[in-house]
Specification:
ten-stranded mixed β-sheet, 2 domains, Rossmann fold, 22% strand, alpha/beta
Length: 282
Amino acid sequence: MKRIVTGIDFSKTSVLAFRYAMQMAKKTGSELLLVNVQRHLDYEVPTAAEEPAGPDHVMKQFEELVAKHRTDDAVRVEFTVKEGRVHEEIANMAKYADAWLVVVGAHGLSGFEEFWMGTQSYRVVSTCMTPVITVRQGFDMERPLKTVVIPIDNTLETTQKIPFTLDLAKQYGAGIHVLSLISDSTMGTREKVETSTHQAKRLTEEAGLQLLLHEEQCENITTSTIKYARNVDADLISIMTEQEFAPKNIFLGPYAQQMVNHSPIPVLTMHPKALVQSRHVI
């Protein structure tokens, strides 16, 4: 059975992520695995941010959460409590459960300081080799997935997200917007983007999905992507962890980090290796 893993600490954002994952599990025929991590902290956090004492209390919260928000008994929901670092335990759960997707709140698994929360969701994305969808509070979890934006930049990895994204979009009959982003005026950059755009166009047409192409000159691919996604009322943005190089790139491209932390629209993020190793076809 296909599985979706959702990290949850019972904050508002993580509950929204749970609701989002529940709907996706129903649509794709997946089992939903909820995981709460009792954190090993190597730094100070406010006392109020500490986890409730004991796994029994957490299991009771799980039961109450599922009872309140479960709308379809056809979706199988399991939950577990782990101990360790949040991002590592979620990544391990996804790996060993053979999950095809992870869903987490974009501002995280903490419920407190924005910087720390953003960092936590960023860590999940950067650590987890399974594709991850991050969702932010304020997004309407009831709306169906109708429009997906796929930004294309000048990296070799930019097209690797397309097959997985199209497989997901087909489950919903969603339309695809391929956004070609030209970050500089050199001929080499334009040629790379045009070649990748052509591949995205071909794959989308072969999948039988509605396609719209758009090209933009931009300075920051994240800012341009979010602005375009807002304008077309998109429901999902699909990106790679490897995006255009910048001097501040540390492990995860800085534009990908910006997207995860600031996009008001859910973001599907993938590592190149996650696609190479993936054995699932949705």
